[in-house]
Amino acid sequence: MIRIALDCFGGDHSPEANIDGALLALEKLPDLALILTGDEKLISEKLAGREYDKARVEIADAPEVIGCDETPTMAIKQKKDSSLMRAVELARNDDTVDGIVTVGSTGALIAAATLRIGRIRGVKRPAFCPILPTMKGGIVGVCDSGANVDISLEMLTQFARMGSLYIETVYGIERPRVALLNIGVEETKGDELRKSAYPALSAMEGLNFVGNMEARELLSGDYDLVVTDGFAGNVLIKSTEGACLEMLKKLKRDIYSRTINKIGAFLMRRMFAEEKAFMDYRNYGGSVLLGCKKTVVKGHGSSNDAAVAKCIEQAYLMRKGNLTERIGEAVERAEE
Amino acid sequence: MIRIALDCFGGDHSPEANIDGALLALEKLPDLALILTGDEKLISEKLAGREYDKARVEIADAPEVIGCDETPTMAIKQKKDSSLMRAVELARNDDTVDGIVTVGSTGALIAAATLRIGRIRGVKRPAFCPILPTMKGGIVGVCDSGANVDISLEMLTQFARMGSLYIETVYGIERPRVALLNIGVEETKGDELRKSAYPALSAMEGLNFVGNMEARELLSGDYDLVVTDGFAGNVLIKSTEGACLEMLKKLKRDIYSRTINKIGAFLMRRMFAEEKAFMDYRNYGGSVLLGCKKTVVKGHGSSNDAAVAKCIEQAYLMRKGNLTERIGEAVERAEE
Predict the structure, then answer these.
(1) Which of A7, B104, B107, B230 could serve as B144's disulfide partner, Cβ 3.0–4.6 Å?
(2) Closest Cβ–Cβ partner in B234, B264, B267 for A183
């Protein structure tokens, strides 16, 4: 049985979406057990009358919630009774708890996971790795995408190692094609960090490093993992999402500006619905925080039930594939 | 009369697009004179039989061309007879030449402009500032977008000053809204550079600093200039362009996959043509290299005649608005 602690509060649609997502995941994965953290009374009320395997669900009472506007360090110090901190403490103290899933505050999660769950031995810094859909129907991960903004070469090579193992484990891609985000494809391009990273990544055993990638190629489908510092990674992810969403918004506005467009769009309504679903990051699961002793998945704050279920499944697959152990071994081998 | 040296070679459609663009610009701007650099025989042939004000056109013979694959420093050393270097040397040596326009190699241009034309007194580094269209029908500049990857706080504040003056001078926007690219809107977000930049930009006299901007807001129309280092700026620009182009490509593929979509798209053909034009960076002019003693504009390698004309007009407006002098004064005042 794989046991995951699910933070039932903190997202835009919590606790309903979180609890519905939990039941969806339980139905899909017969060897999954969940510990729902949050206001016990409220969770019990929401579960009342629902059909699910009660033997696989526990509730851990934690009536407080960490807001997205709170300072992470203050939140984890002062809100020990919050749904997020309860999940984190379960992962820290209970050996049978394999990981946590939350759609709440990112900052608080990074601080809590790093300080309380702790890093895998040898890992310098946990790193965030979200997944985006590519135009060829596949996926691409970006590691790091915001957890670490001032980084060293060693951290960057670890991001490559951890991200590659993650893509392999959860998405079943053998020898993921790993690229270094840079401002040109030539080996000599970039700042000091990138110039030293190119030969370092090339020399890494067992890593399928395919060279530099320019930002415009992110969605091309030619790469499985993009490695970068958290600042550039965050810019890469957010500008890509932003541009796609702004374009869809513009299309919508332009469609409504002329009757002929409305007729055309009506005929194409199935296609447009598919484009919208394709663009919806909720369909691709959450960002995982790689390098912690337990599996950590952070879903988007606007996650609906299906998105929460997807995040739980990610955490489940990471545990199932022994990702934490594999990262530990790889980091240890690299140190030798 | 404003005199601009136009590099007639180097782009994908040169010399035809460059020469046609030159004639378009001459027609639009009666007090513009151009020096066309490149193979004199070829240029003369292309001009033969065309109608234009011959008093405002000179040719400076330079038979060589710098390829995009050549090392910038080698190219500027060894190809003194190239169309680009001839334009640069004219700007360097002839006081009556106000600036240069090229659609050739970016690397060679940056190296040549910095080393041969030189920086405005007090400017630490010239910076690239391209322009993107926003979803509200306006524009937004990004400075720096790739000329400087390892930067200091002083460089960043100069990018803000130069970019703001540029947006004001060429686009007529009073008190441009200047934002700092960051991974969150709070003042405390980001790496060491960003944390020190926030208060520094806030304190700058005459600068309308409006705070941090996340990458997803680039096209929102809420900002006139985004200030950042060349690495993140390059990622921001290229991922935004890449995402928009990939989405248009995907739409096109999806339209052709079903007959009903083809009918819908036929009805919406005017709208789709407008979207395509909206996305075409050639309609927004080139990137300007701010901080050089003379006006420097770099158009996209794929520029057509209209795009080349637009670049010439940008250089013309920069000169007309005394941008170089204004930058020099602002930098001097900041040093006092």
Answers:
(1) B230
(2) B234
- What does the DSSP 8-state code read for residue A290? E
The closest alpha carbon to A215, from B58, B215, B195, belongs to: B215
Whether residue A239 and residue B239 make contact (CB cut-off 8 A), yes or no, is yes
pLDDT tens digits for B226-253?
Answer: 999 999 999 999 999 999 888 888 888 8
The 10s digit of each residue's pLDDT in A272-314 is 888 878 777 777 889 999 999 999 999 998 899 999 999 999 9
What gap in Å lies between CA B142 and CA B236, rounded to an integer?
Answer: 9
Inform me whether the C-beta atom of residue B268 falls under 8 Å from chain A C-beta atoms: yes
**ipTM for this prediction:** 0.89
**Shortest Cα–Cα distance, A31 to chain B (Å):** 38
Distance of CA A213 to the CA centre of its chain: 21
Closest residue by Cα to residue A312 from A81, A7, A1: A7
Q: Are residues B110 and B4 in the same domain?
A: yes
Tens-place pLDDT, residues A195-235: 999 999 999 999 999 999 999 999 999 999 999 999 999 99
- Chain A residues with beta carbon closer than 8 angstroms to that of B149: 183, 190-191, 194
* A7 within a domain of the structure (yes/no): yes
Exposure of B108 in the CB half-sphere (CA atoms within 13 A): 27
Domain of A33, CATH number, reads 3.40.718.10
Task: Tokens for A195, please give them.
Answer: 């110039």
Domain that holds residue B93: 1-123+291-322
| Alpha-carbon distance B210 to nearest alpha carbon in chain A (angstroms) | 19
Contact A267 B255 (CB under 8 A): no
Residues A20 and A113 in one domain: yes
Name which of B247, B263, B265 is nearest A247 (Cβ-Cβ).
B247
Distance (Å) from the alpha carbon of B261 to chain A's nearest alpha carbon:
5
Contact between A267 and B254 using a beta-carbon 8 Å cutoff: no
